[in-house]
Amino acid sequence: MKKTMRWLAAVLAVLIVVSCLAACGGGGGNPAAGTYKGLYTKFVGDDDDAKNTEDEFTLILNADGKGTHKRDGEEFKVTWTLDGENFAMTETFLGLSIEYTGTLVGNRLDIFNDDPENIFTCEYVYEKQ
């Protein structure tokens, strides 16, 4: 009986450790999580020669689906999801939500702050660090 109780206690301890690791992100994590350095921005309607690289911008994606978008000298809170290569992000700005969509392929993240077919939509291109 004592052996059975010890065995059950050991199994329970292992289950607790595994669940704690998973809850803290130690169970594999999200492949999109990390810090992304902005390479350039441009309007969809502009040719590639019109890339804007003057301002530095970064995107920090936490494994819990939250993060920070740093651009224009400001920090904006974001929530995000990744479904395969399809990336979606909501940025909160002055109480308003700005929706982004895009793709994550390898270390390159391309996002748009509106319809990717609209020539006035801004495209942000990042590289994971």
Can you characterise this structure?
The termini are far apart. With 129 residues, the chain is of the alpha+beta class. The protein is 17% helix and 47% strand. The protein is globular, with a radius of gyration of 20 Å. It has an eight-stranded antiparallel barrel with strand order 1-2-3-4-5-6-7-8. It is built from one helix and eight strands. The protein folds into two domains: 1-29; 31-128, Lipocalin (Beta Barrel).
Main sheet attributes: strand count, strand direction, barrel closure: 8 strands, antiparallel, barrel
Number of DSSP strand runs? 8
3D shape: globular
What is the gyration radius calculated from CA atoms? 20 Å
How many domains, as an integer? 2
The structure class reads alpha+beta
The H/E string reads HEEEEEEEE
The share of residues in helices is 10-25%
Across the major sheet, the strand order is: 1-2-3-4-5-6-7-8
**What average pLDDT do the residues reach?**
81
What's the CATH topology label of the largest domain? Lipocalin
Low-confidence stretches: 11-15, 17-27
Write the CATH architecture name of the largest domain.
Beta Barrel
**CATH class label of the largest domain:** Mainly Beta
Strand fraction equals: over 45%
